[in-house]
Amino acid sequence: MKVCVFSSSSNAIETAYINEAIHLSRLIGQNHMTLVNGGANVGLMETVLKEVVTSGGDTIGILPEKLNGHNLASQYAKKLIISKDMMERKSMMREIADAFVALPGGFGTLEEVLEVITLKQLDYHNKAIVFVNTNGFYDDLFRQFERSFAENFAKEAYRKLYHIANSSDEAIEYLKSYTPSQPVNKWYKVPQK
């Protein structure tokens, strides 16, 4: 299984987030999964790459040409793919991966995970998506999701598009037992022609 992990590029985050990223990475390696990520040598991206390799796992990093020019390629990406830009990078990550895990992260992580949720909602894929909610990091985002459900911006059935895990152990177990569900019609009422 190829698992795409979205995560922070910050080197200034709390130890609890680093420790959970290390734990997830070791589980990926020990379960003979292949990591797919952004391929950079900063933040949790580098931590995850290094720990998967140390645990005997395979890694694929996908780095945009512009970032590669800033010497940001990780030495722990066993296979490094250089994309022409961020859009191609995300497209390749989605294509290669069999599942997606979001560790805590900033704007880029949010954009990536919300995009794969949206594409699943629109039936472009039916792959597992998991948030690892370390320290309740995503609680405010989930409250926003709840408002979307309550005010009919999102259907109740969309709760099945993603899974919220409180730990990496729970996330890996979810991926191992994941069964794709039937797509849900996105529209409440389709306009008649």
UniProtKB/TrEMBL annotation:
<dbReference type="Pfam" id="PF03641">
    <property type="entry name" value="Lysine_decarbox"/>
</dbReference>
<comment type="similarity">
    <text>Belongs to the LOG family.</text>
</comment>
<dbReference type="InterPro" id="IPR005269">
    <property type="entry name" value="LOG"/>
</dbReference>
<dbReference type="GO" id="GO:0008714">
    <property type="term" value="F:AMP nucleosidase activity"/>
</dbReference>
<keyword id="KW-0203">Cytokinin biosynthesis</keyword>
<protein>
    <recommendedName>
        <fullName>Cytokinin riboside 5'-monophosphate phosphoribohydrolase</fullName>
        <ecNumber>3.2.2.n1</ecNumber>
    </recommendedName>
</protein>
<keyword id="KW-0378">Hydrolase</keyword>
<dbReference type="GO" id="GO:0009691">
    <property type="term" value="P:cytokinin biosynthetic process"/>
</dbReference>
<dbReference type="GO" id="GO:0005829">
    <property type="term" value="C:cytosol"/>
</dbReference>
<dbReference type="InterPro" id="IPR031100">
    <property type="entry name" value="LOG_fam"/>
</dbReference>
